[in-house]
Amino acid sequence: MNALKIKDVLKKVSLGQSTVYKMIAEDKFPKPFRISDNRVAWSEEEIDA
């Protein structure tokens, strides 16, 4: 599994950061997982699906 940072996710989906987080809140976008205390990432497989 490849972990994508927010900047990589935004490039893949061509959306803005606020739009992505709004879609997460509406359960319309995959939720990130925590990789450290203050960093999250997304599964590349979920983003590509």
UniProtKB/TrEMBL annotation:
<protein>
    <submittedName>
        <fullName>Prophage CP4-57 regulatory protein (AlpA)</fullName>
    </submittedName>
</protein>
<dbReference type="Pfam" id="PF05930">
    <property type="entry name" value="Phage_AlpA"/>
</dbReference>
<dbReference type="InterPro" id="IPR010260">
    <property type="entry name" value="AlpA"/>
</dbReference>
<dbReference type="InterPro" id="IPR052931">
    <property type="entry name" value="Prophage_regulatory_activator"/>
</dbReference>
